[in-house]
Records
---
Amino acid sequence: MATVIDGKAFAQQLRNDLKDEVTALKAEHGLTPGLAVVLVGEDPASQVYVRNKARQTVEVGMQSFEHRLDADTDQQTLLDLIEQLNDDDAVHGILVQLPLPGHIDESRVINAVSHDKDVDGFHLINVGRLNTDGGGVVPCTPLGSLMMLKSQLGDLSGLHAVVLGRSNIVGKPMAALLLQANCTVTVAHSRTRDLESLCRSADILVAAVGRPRMVPGDWIKPGATVIDVGINRIEEDGKTRLVGDVDHASAEPVAGAITPVPGGVGPMTIACLLHNTVQQARRIAGISED
Ligand code: GUN
């Protein structure tokens, strides 16, 4: 049976370390990192995430700024708010919750956030750095996934990693990080042929497609490490359940290690957001990591 990787405990440890780091930044440098989260509209899942983010930001001792705008807010109003946050010295990180309503140009908004305050790693400068010198800010979900992989496997060199999904938020940056870690990386997507045998050749399988239980156990190489990024809400037996992109009932007897849903990648994503905010606050203030 697979080891179930406890993302919740891992995230708690990361937040404990961040709390100590924030205490030291306040005491030694008078610096309190601040994170601004902007939510446009009333998407229920986004509201839950934003509430969790705000609570955890305060719990580690940082300042939280929340901006909720109506779903019909025009693009210029949003861009004006971002400009104001870019100029605000108490704000070191800005996160605009995605997806944005259809009438807003997402790329325009993402790139309006100063790259020094981008905590998602979505700004073109940070995307470019991730794919060249490996500096800059790393997107939260791939970063949390990589941390769990390294703690499980140690050195990842030479392993074959298959990433299912090619989104800008998860698939592409995940592939870049695994490549940096010296994996041989294959990115698969909806047009990939013979997905099943490809998955079965993976030492590391990262599923980030947003399709409930798409990967059954017999697609998994015995002993492989599986990171399930999916968080899908389904109705089953008259109940709403959260399930991953992997079918855990058939995958757990085969895999070597697997992240659960919920309690795997999800908690790590928020912890990494806090980590990125502290990192940006240090950069802006010119305080190096020691
Ligand atoms: N929506 C879903 N995941 C994310 C994320 O990591 N960052 C932002 N900004 N929006 C999201």
---
Amino acid sequence: MNEYDPGNGVVIVKIGGSVLTFKEKFFEPRTEIIAQLAQEIKNALPRLGGLILVHGGGSFGHPVAAHYLLQKGYASNAPAIALTEVEDAMRKLNGIVEEGLARVGLPVFTVQTSAVARARQGKLAEINTSFFSELLSLSLIPITYGSLIFDETLGYTIVSGDDISVKLAVGLGAKSLIFVSDVDGLYDRDPKIHPDAKLLRKVSLTRDHVIFGEVKDVTGGIRNKVENAGLAVSSGVAVRLINGLRRGNLYAALNGEDVGTEFIE
Ligand code: ATP
Ligand code: IP8
């Protein structure tokens, strides 16, 4: 099997659970937004040199993991059924996302996270990038998601889609990584709590100071996203955070336009 040749450069899109679901409503997808994003991806695809999609947990994975007190990814007294239920919740959301994308004719192919990724001491340690390259070389759009993965030291760990997308972006030498969320970009403080928060169009991950709102989800929320983004930025990947609820934004970002917040070193 030929390895994927990046050529034009692969683009990684992490579609956050805040866009795919109503995060405050248990197991409720935003079906119209999923359809809209699917169409924008379809319109942008001919100009891309390969695309990988990663999605988050939103109101599917997060409440189930929180129910079993898996906030830190691992609870030694959690019953085995907790693993079944978290993966099942994520697969339900994955099925909805996959169906929405396939409906407009996008050749998506789901990769079950725990089959290709491993953790060590609670952190994503490895991901099988060659498998993604092989799918890309078949003109497929691999899609994977944050979920439970097996951990060499702890047994298992919940890994965020943010960590997966950064690992894939660095491992594959991606051209860009786009985080799609429900806010216009990174603000100097949480815009949902502080209406006067200032949108930062360009953020230096080493110099600028950003205040993050209280984290309600199990994988560290936007703080984890921003901290991880630094790894991609420092290996030459163009990284930005955009609002996927605004029509046309994802299409524009896939076209290389300056929307949302650009992360720099
Ligand atoms: P998921 O983890 O389910 O995939 P997601 O990746 O879409 O979700 P979150 O982790 O929920 O996104 O992060 C987005 C949220 O972060 C926003 O809804 C916003 O309220 C919150 N937030 C906190 N601090 C800030 C900040 N300084 N700038 C922008 N958003 C912030
Ligand atoms: O929403 C979390 O992925 P994220 C996945 O990308 C689970 O942080 C299982 C909560």
---
Amino acid sequence: MISETTSLSIVLPVYNEEENIEPLTTQIVQCLEQLKNPTEIIFIDDGSTDNSVEQMKAIQVKFPTRTFRIVQLDRNYGLSTAMAAGFKAARGDVIVTLDADLQNDPADIPKLLEQLPEYDAALGWRVDRKDTLIKKISSKIANFFRKKVLDDPIHDTGCSLKAYKATYIKRVKMFKGMHRFLGVLIAMEGGKITEVPVSHHPRKYGKSKYGFWNRLISPFLDLLAVRWMKKRAIRYEAKEVS
Ligand code: UDP
Ligand code: MG
């Protein structure tokens, strides 16, 4: 378990989640009450067109003793960009990410933190996914290809609920689509990773932004790019002898 002095950054990527902001942050604040760590919560607004940003500002007023930061992207770029902006903005020693739609459960955050510092990243594994049938099927297909092409033992790569040592995740060069491969990318940076079973809930408010097609074609091309990176990664040991 991380020590009480380890600072935390909780990164929340948001694209049109106005109804989820208030209940989500209330749950996060409740969960933080059991932790003594200095913590900041960073909303990354990925170009929302609804009232998400107003909701974020209301949260800053509701919890004046907590540090809430709002980073606003000038338009919608997609989850990888939102995550990258979050990793860059984060000032904590440990960065926790989770979806802002309440599908991930903030109550699982301490379970992930328990795995640090022994591991450099703890990845949420949604053992009982609460998604639509079409999404479950497309995930199964994607996982099948990912495991074959990458020889990757990770069970659930798409779960946003993850905790990283900041020094490791900040080393990963982000590209569009890479939010689906952060576990393997951290491992490529020499990080020790572990998976932690977490709960998953159906989406109650708002709409999913990722369907069948936008999760199949370009993620497959991204997979080939990650395979290339994995094969061509530079790894060596050397010492200066004189
Ligand atoms: N999201 C984002 N930018 C986007 C699409 C999604 O920041 O362009 C956020 C979204 O608000 C949510 C998370 O990424 O917090 C996951 O999105 P979503 O729930 O739609 O994906 P799903 O769970 O359906 O795969
Ligand atoms: Mg979701």
